[in-house]
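Entry 14. Ran structure prediction on the chain below.
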Amino acid sequence: MDWLIENKEWLFSGIAIAIPLAIAGWALSSKSKKQVQKGGKGSTNIQIGGSINIKEKDKGE
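Output, structure tokens:
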């Protein structure tokens, strides 16, 4: 408890910087997750929001 009292200025100044940076990082990252897809006439468009693993069928099956 003594450590907290002795270092309260240092501790809370760090928190005062960390919270606005965390909010700004969250706001900027949520905007960059938007996906935009454009395709021309007769095209097939596939849009994936994460990872995809495509396995081809074996021709012997």
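The radius of gyration is 25 Å. Will compare against last week's run tomorrow.
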